[in-house]
């Protein structure tokens, strides 16, 4: 199912999509229209695009290498009053039809390929098009791609997201934005506010990415800490629900405890209560911690707990099943280690 798999836009994947015949799916947006284009209909992007499409009064164009993802999106969003969702054949095709482009992609390589590769966005981009990249990637890659977009006569902002799949579904995400000027930020905010509740300008190009990796550093550490505390309390005989209620009304309260508690059954809506499905995958958290490590090395910043967290998640990601489960599965990993002690 689409919503249980991350988008996988590999190098030159858009050419594979064209070979599958995506060009024949829809041609509803002409080059004279000012569409909003959205690339990346994975676990986050699918929900984000739905919110954006439903609250926008212009044509909407999407691209994903997975043709089933595009068809599902078209079926989910087409209505009797707004029947057409245009399905692009490549990033360049989408760019040629769009005055605003939003991208939500897994890794730096995907962003570089979608923007600068063969049949990429830069091959079809219009002057003054606003490109909003909500991927979480290396800051230097983000800045470099943004500068290429600007050199092509368009505009670019980096706007990574926080809030997870639950936030994407609810339209309550936080966007951390980097832009070269306030005007580009305000233009981006008009669209980002349709997908989230908090849109914050963090500074110049790349500042959004910097804020995001700092947030995810803290998130990884706090989830490990929450899992350790819950595991210890349970082994001391405490009821997990009682322990969580105490933590969540005391100084230990954090998102990892009050919203995404890692112990199954404590919070019904948390990934842990859904067999750790539908959340932020462990392998993606490990990827983000790698970005943190790179940034810390570049800035000569000590990374004590961060390095420990990265090492823990590297061990967990070595388990093929856990690698694709929500990163709160660290609780299960700790519990198993306790059983072996």
From TrEMBL:
One Pfam family linked to the record: NAD_binding_11
Gene source species: Coemansia reversa (strain ATCC 12441 / NRRL 1564)
Residue ranges of domain 3-hydroxyisobutyrate dehydrogenase-like NAD-binding in the record: 206-333
PANTHER family xref list: 3-HYDROXYISOBUTYRATE DEHYDROGENASE, MITOCHONDRIAL, 3-HYDROXYISOBUTYRATE DEHYDROGENASE-RELATED
Listed pathway(s): Amino-acid degradation; L-valine degradation
One MF annotation (Gene Ontology) recorded for this entry: 3-hydroxyisobutyrate dehydrogenase activity
GO cellular component, one term: mitochondrion
Family the UniProt entry places it in: Belongs to the HIBADH-related family. 3-hydroxyisobutyrate dehydrogenase subfamily.
Name of the protein in its database record: 3-hydroxyisobutyrate dehydrogenase
Keyword Calcium: no
EC number assigned by the record: 1.1.1.31
Active site positions, chain numbering: 212
Alphabetized NCBIfam families for the sequence: HIBADH
